[in-house]
Design a protein that fits this description.
about 120 residues; alpha+beta; GMP Synthetase, Chain A, domain 3; 3 strands; globular
Length: about 120
């Protein structure tokens, strides 16, 4: 990936993170923009989001983000002043949920260290 695309990806992510937090749509729950992937011609951008909650909340949030597409795209256009503003699509990113689950599994199966007795501590 070239430097320009990397900078555009990061800038789009930053603008959308701020703009999504300002949405008043009740369908949009707690959302984190985890990444963006702009095409080489800057025509399209996949926006990866993590949603706090169950499958129903995730679907509602994605529907709310899709409905707010026009507003979010205009914010990107206004703040980034690109010659061509990428068309946004939103996709759920399961990586955060996966990471939390792996952390839980590690905690459940990690061996517990026995407490040291007074004889072992040298006191």
């Amino acid at each position: 990936m070239n430097d320009r695309r990397r900078r555009v990806n990061e800038a789009v992510k930053q603008v959308l993170s701020e703009a999504i937090g300002e949405l008043k749509d009740p369908r949009v729950g707690f959302v984190t923009v985890t990444g963006t992937e702009v095409t080489t011609d800057l025509g399209y951008a996949k926006v990866f989001v993590s949603v706090y909650g169950d499958d129903h909340k995730r679907e509602r949030t994605l529907a709310g983000l899709t409905a707010a597409h026009g507003y979010l795209q205009s914010r990107v256009a206004k703040e980034l002043k690109l010659r061509r503003t990428p068309r946004l699509t939103f996709e759920y990113d399961p990586s955060v949920e996966y990471g939390v689950r792996m952390s839980q599994l590690i905690d459940e199966h990690a061996p517990t260290e026995p407490a040291l007795s007074d004889d072992q501590t040298g006191d």
